[in-house]
Write a structure and sequence with these properties.
single chain; mainly alpha; globular
Length: about 110
């Protein structure tokens, strides 16, 4: 892991905890691909909007064309996914607190 990730880990230890499915940028210590460490107009100190950050690697039209994303509309990726990785495939959150998840994702893909 890079020097930047070591600095980030000083305050954000939970982001770097062992996960069954770590997101590659986190695993490789590329925090600055998604975050501005000191200031940002975006939530979470993101470099761009959440969807724009995700779309850097995940082609938005391709992702939104999958059955699991058929009804999400303008919902943010973090509603269902932990962008740093998780214990479930596709970084799906363990216990999403947002009821929107149940409404958005067809049952067969949960």
């Amino acid at each position: 892991r890079g020097e930047i990730a070591e600095i980030c880990q000083l305050c954000h230890k939970s982001v770097f905890e062992a996960r069954s499915f770590p997101h590659a940028p986190v695993k490789e210590g590329h925090c600055l691909e998604g975050h501005k460490p000191h200031e940002s107009m975006e939530a979470g100190l993101l470099v761009q909007s959440e969807r724009e950050v995700c779309a850097k690697c995940h082609e938005e039209n391709k992702v939104l064309g999958t059955p699991a994303h058929a009804n999400i509309g303008a919902a943010a990726c973090h509603v269902c996914h932990d962008s740093h990785g998780g214990q479930k495939k596709f970084f799906l959150k363990e216990n999403p607190t947002n009821r929107t998840v149940a409404l958005l994702v067809p049952r067969q893909t949960q």
